[in-house]
Amino acid sequence: MHTASSIVTLASEGVDHMQLALETLPYGLIAVAVFGILALITASYSNVAHRHEPAKKHDDEHQH
Prior knowledge:
By secondary structure, the protein is mainly α. The protein has helices at about 1-15, 25-45.
């Protein structure tokens, strides 16, 4: 068991921790803003299919 804890300690000492450009809160706020913009774009297309009147059905009985 002592060997396993020594290996874990040595492995953790050799790892350089990356520094993030921003803290975690700004990343979350940016993600919320991006998804909000995408939601507005999606919502703007919600009525596209209903812009035109449905096509009138042809009544073949009256054409003879």
